[in-house]
Amino acid sequence: MNQRKHSDEDNLERLIQAGFDKTARPGAAARERAWNRINAVWRAEHGAKTPQGASAQSSTPVMCNAQSESRNNNNKQERHTLMSLFLRNRWGFGLGAAAGAFALFVLIALTTPKAHATAAQIMAKGAQAMANLTSIHLRGQLRTLPADNFSYISAEQDFFPIEFWKQLEPEFKWKVEKPGRVAVMDGKTTLLYIKSANEAFKIDQASASAFDTDWLHGIANLSHTISNELTHALANGWKLELAQQTGADGRVKAVVTVHATSGIPDDDYSKNSFLQTADTRRVYRFDDKTELLENVQIFQVKSGAETQVFELNQIDYNQPIAGSVWQVQLPADVSYYQEPQKLPDNDRYASMTPGQAARTFFEACSREDWTEAGKFMSPLTDQLKGYLGGLEIVSLGQPFTSQTYGGQFVPYEIKLRGQTFYVRVANTNAAKRFVLTGMYDAQFKLQQDLKLSGEPEVLPNNDTYARLSPKEVVQAYFDAQAKLDWVEMRKFTSQYDIDETKRQVEAARKSGMDVQKLMPAFQVGETVSSPEQSACFVKCVMSGVKRHNLALRNDNPAGRWQVDGGI
């Protein structure tokens, strides 16, 4: 770190310690140096001249407001790709070396109470303690769906692990992973892979942040976090608090709490679906001695109640990261996203309304015209073709928008053709009765492990259930599910399966769905034995009605509406 940067950071610390007293502000030369760095970044990122009226000599620099506007625009872009499989527009290029300088300008412009100054001081010291990082590794848990967007949250879901690696030297690399989704930048390319769908999106260049990962990069780059949190605190009237706690290790912790509001109306479709669209209470804990960040908690605030949706409980600083971390082994049959290109008759499609595009897409799926359907969605995998092929359109509603999404949503109801799948059952247990252990697709590929954590209990009337055949057990399971009879279901499956089904039902009810009316019908068929697995596979066919909102956007080179989610 050079002497000039040291000087700016020293001025920053003096400014915070003085409670934003104007007499403690950095001098004109220091402001000019920081201004020049920010102005260079502004020009590089926006290709624009210095914003009119901006000056390093201003008592309240206009650059703070201009950069804040840029940051807000970036945040809007970050929110745009709601329910997208690939989030191809989520490119959150950061400020890099200028982040510390921007924090300086934000703090120059603050005129907040000393309580805010003290909280800001703790965060600034934490940022300074992290300033010389060569690598960082974060591990936490998020209430989410395993394969959904990295910032997707649902208070009704269970916690799933989420992990982040970032290497700054000798070559800049990063990776984010949760059970069903991984994104990695290996220094040369940027890749997103969705495991359950076996779909990938690859860009042949490095990126500072992509695919909805910016919020984790923000935690790792505390200078960015300071500027973001404090700028929004001032602009939106957020409350900052500082407290001290004694941790389980007996060490004193400085605790900074930020009460953040998203500004999204409660009736907006995306409200509370993502970290950036929810009202939250964010808690940062720093070790009072080392000044390093040790823990982050985020609570969703809704209707006066709080639900914890994120906890960061492991942070490793400057630890070597194995080269294997940056390698993602993709299956040979992975399907890659292709950006839509102009067609010979492109104007016909580009002139469609969202409702017309949705109807044309579903009609193509109905007649299994995948060339036509592919004009509206990429990739169309064999799994998706099997799911949507032969569908029947029941109804399409009026398109609507969301404040945080750059496209439109089309409500739909479709009747799906029967889907073949297999249920794996086994009776190699002390109770000697068949229980479900997994769900498989038509090609016997595992789709859901029902995660039996222990031996099925021996029931008071165990002999009655032990006499049931594999087919009868599967039929009894689906009958109990249709009635939402959790006690009866539990006799055939794991507690994990019960809990997951309950969560899905509750989430559907909160969305206004009549769960039992929309419950699919199951036809139970023949049994196939598998001696090598000590199990049987029962063939089943599922049919029913699906009701959801199709997400569409047309900000692509072809200008055509593309299916962006909601399938």
Describe the 3D structure:
The structure is a single chain. With 567 residues, the chain is an alpha+beta fold. The chain has two domains: 3-326, Lipoprotein localisation LolA/LolB/LppX (outer membrane lipoprotein receptor (LolB), chain A), CATH 2.50.20.10; 344-567, no CATH class. It has 16 helices and 19 strands. The chain has a twelve-stranded mixed beta sheet with strand order 7-8-9-10-11-1-2-3-4-5-6-12, covered by helices on one side. Helix 1 packs across helix 2 (28-46) and helix 5 packs antiparallel against helix 7 (222-236). The radius of gyration is 27 Å and the shape is globular. It starts with a helix and ends with a strand. Residues 1-35 and 37-117 have low confidence and may be disordered.
Strand content: 25-35%
Largest sheet composition: 12 strands, mixed
- Mean pLDDT, nearest integer? 76
Gyration radius, rounded: 27 Å
| CATH architecture title of the largest domain | Clam
Q: What's the name of the CATH homologous superfamily of the largest domain?
A: Lipoprotein localisation LolA/LolB/LppX
The first-level CATH class name of the largest domain = Mainly Beta
Provide a quick synopsis of the model:
The chain has 567 residues and is of the alpha+beta class. The protein is built from 16 helices and 19 strands. The radius of gyration is 27 Å and the shape is globular.
